[in-house]
Amino acid sequence: MRTAARRFYYSWIRAERGLSLVAYDLKRGILCETLMRYAAFLDMSEKTLRNEIGFLSQFWTFIDGEDGLLEVSDDVLVRFRDAEFEKTFNSAAGRRNPLTAKRTTNAKLRRVYHFIQWCQEVGYLGEAAVSVFPRLGASSGALHRGGGKRRHEAFTYPVLFRRAGESSRIRHNYFATASDISHLKRYFRDHNSEYVCARNCLIVDIADSTGLRRESIASLTCQQFISREEELVNGRTEIVPAKQKLDYTNSFEFPRSLVLSILNYIYTIRTPFLQGMGWVLRAGDALFVSGRSGRPVTKEALSTAFHLAFKEIGAAKGAGLHSFRRRFAERCVREELTVRLKLGLDTSAASISASVAIQMGHANPKSLESYISRSVGSLLTESE
Question: DSSP string covering 136-163, please?
Answer without folding.
Answer: GGGHHHHHHH--HHHHHHHHHSTTSPSS
